Amino acid sequence: MTPATEKVDVLICGSGSAGLCAAVWLARFGISYKILERRDGPLKIGQADGVQTRTVEIFDSFGIAEDLLKEAYHVLEVAFWAPDPDAEAGVQGIRRTKYAADKETEISHQPHVILNQARLNALMMGELGAAPPVEYECEVKGVEVDEAAAKDADAYAVRVTAAKGGKDMIYQAKYVLGCDGAHSVIRRSLGFKMVGDSTDSVWGVMDIYPRTNFPDIRKKCVINSAAGSILIVPREGDSMVRFYTELPEGTKVSDVSLESLQSHARKVFSPYTMDFAETFWWSAYAIGQRRADFFHRDFRVFLTGDACHTHSPKAGQGMNVSLQDGHNIGWKLGMVLKGLARPELMESYVLERERTATELIEFDRGFTKLFNSKYREENGITPQNVAEQFVKAGRYTAGQAVRYDESAVTTIGEHDKEVASRVTVGMRFPSAQLVRFCDAKAMHLVKGLPADGQWYVVVFSGDLAQPEVASRLKEISQSLEQTARRFTPAGDYPDSVIDRVLVIASDRTKVEQEEIPEFFTPVTGKWGMKSITKVFADDESYNSGHGHAYEAYGVDPQRGALVVVRPDHYVAKVAALSEVDSIRQFFDGFLVPTSQS
Ligand SMILES: Cc1cc2nc3c(=O)[nH]c(=O)nc-3n(C[C@H](O)[C@H](O)[C@H](O)COP(=O)(O)OP(=O)(O)OC[C@H]3O[C@@H](n4cnc5c(N)ncnc54)[C@H](O)[C@@H]3O)c2cc1C
């Protein structure tokens, strides 16, 4: 029998963190897509749990952070424990060496939290509409790209074979995402290899309800004892706790039992007592520090997440980096398939995420060594050194150290730092508190940049009370208006491709609405109303103090600044107000001008 064939613009293979995050964007852009998943339904329990501040920011930009923050454990402090030198001979013991803040305040306005991966997946799934297009119990078997057809942007050049309920299926797609985890069939089918360590380290993980007199059981703890190391991660709900253990070299996953993990934990915690009232979930899994040798085929099939990088769970990166791969590629596909951006935009996914994966593996190699007692002994690394390194790695482990290289969507200028000294092109746009002009609400600037697929030009105008500042803003607005119109399809809302935000350095009570150029108050949305929510003042608020945003962004109010922010909130470009024409040139580099222009 001829297998059933289905056509879809994007086929996502795997409904894990990477696949679902990409799907959220595609749903927002209204792209035709389908997810194939071998499981019989959504992930129910287990796997990763650490949610970096960057991932919380992403959920917030999608408008789905509230439940995440409400349900999660918030990590505020880390306790470090080491062998107790005063323990009596022959008696093993541990003592606390240090407490440290889990996150420096400036790293993010969002917290680092812990929540089950299944719950995060469910929150993303909730954004895929009433009937998410997921084909469960569907096993992907292989993928092929028709190289000649791939040259035609509109061709369904990729063919995926799959099987469901004993029946073969064929999918023809324009783009395919291999989000099918560490044993990716898509990767193997393309003949790509994982390169890096040849040996896998084996990790034991258990979610347990402990009965213990260990005092820091509700804190994130790094415990290095003579009997081995354990990382404690308290779980949501005030009772459950997760223990991570790296098992000795040579351990096979099949050798690991729950009893062996529990007995190891009792030894590490000695002399404190450790009983297990209940084990909710446990697992042992092997992991190597490796990345795929290629991330794409003909820029039509892309690998994401564990399918292209694997590493230890020590720094809580796995789910986050995977989800962020999906976040990086989803909006790009959305823009290309809507005809707003040229297909070459997809090349930036590979440039950006290959580097991120390489850096992640290098970081993980160094970080993992800190937990290896043999390595510490041989290299004279003290418990104090371990604690210091752990704290130093804070920005990285928060997901805030990612910096993308120069590309069509990230252009680095020589004078960027003179214009906005605390904004870095290629890194995510930081947030600062402002007061919204229309309703006096104190809010973080990024809250005014919802992730619906549009680009943002953030204009730091200076103080509108100064006549020269006001007239300069008028001129800039005219130029930006033309730029936005040039790339907005006829009939679409004026802010749907290039949105705008104005940040004034004024006493907001002395500014009147009519002084704000109309570019910042476009008539938009289904009711055709004038939008007045895009203007903010760097001013004192009634109940939340002053955010000092110009200072936080390093912008001189006399000079002002233009900052272009990508749909995923990475900084694309910084320019002086006098360089407003360069904004149009920037967008010309990858957007498709419309017939309106
Ligand atoms: C058992 C286990 C425990 C883990 N524990 C931790 C942890 O404690 N902490 C941590 O940080 N990380 C942990 N990880 C790693 C973490 O879960 C991953 O880094 C993260 O889930 C990667 O996301 P992803 O979307 O790339 O892949 P996944 O979340 O693995 O999603 C891949 C999806 O693809 C589906 N799939 C695979 N093959 C096919 C196919 N042929 N056809 C159709 N569907 C397919 C899978 O069923 C799955 O739903 C664990 C991983 C595993 C497997």
Describe this structure in words.
- By secondary structure, this protein is α+β, with helices and mostly antiparallel strands.
- Helices cover 26% and strands 27% of the residues.
- The chain has 15 helices and 30 strands.
- Strands 1, 2, 8, 9, 10, 11, 19 and 20 form an eight-stranded mixed sheet that branches. It has a seven-stranded mixed sheet with strand order 6-5-14-15-16-13-17.
- Helix 13 links the parallel strand 24 and strand 25 (498-504).
- Helix 1 runs parallel beside helix 7 and helix 2 crosses helix 3 (65-71).
- The chain is globular.
- The mean pLDDT is 93.
- Bound molecules: flavin-adenine dinucleotide.
- Flavin-adenine dinucleotide binds next to helix 1, strand 9, strand 17 and helix 7.
- Belongs to the PheA/TfdB FAD monooxygenase family.
- Residues 7-363 form the FAD-binding domain.
Q: Please state the overall shape, judged from the principal axes of the Cα atoms.
A: globular
Number of strands: 30
Question: What class would the helix/strand composition place it in?
Answer: alpha+beta
Q: β content, as a range?
A: 25-35%
Mean pLDDT: 93
User: pLDDT below 50 for ≥5 consecutive residues: which ranges?
Assistant: none
Instruction: Give the distinct bound molecules.
Output: flavin-adenine dinucleotide
**Rg over C-alpha atoms, rounded to the nearest angstrom:** 26 Å
Task: Report the major sheet.
Answer: 8 strands, mixed
Portion of residues within helices: 25-40%
Gap between N and C termini? 52 Å
Number of distinct helices: 15
